[in-house]
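Still learning. Any example?
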Amino acid sequence: MKKNLASLLFTAMLALPLASTAYAQPETQAVASAEQAATVNINVADADTLVRELSGIGPSKARAIIDYREQQGAFVSVDELLEVKGIGLATLERIRHQLTVE
């Protein structure tokens, strides 16, 4: 019995590093997701960055954002994007977590 218990304990100890690695994976994936949701400063981003980083923003919406910024000045808040032609509430809510104004 002691031999079986020792064998079982040894096997369990060997499995611990594997178990901790398995639990670390979701955390690593969460960090990767956070990195993918990098913040885009709409006051300085060029059209290529807006298109590449923001889901639902194509070349024409990116150009509209830049045109608005050039005509009206820097964005004071992310919500001001609603003033840009082609940007509605649904689009803004979808990308809000990726945006900043600095």
The radius of gyration is 24 Å. The mean pLDDT is 81. The helical segments are 2-36, 47-53, 59-72, 89-95.
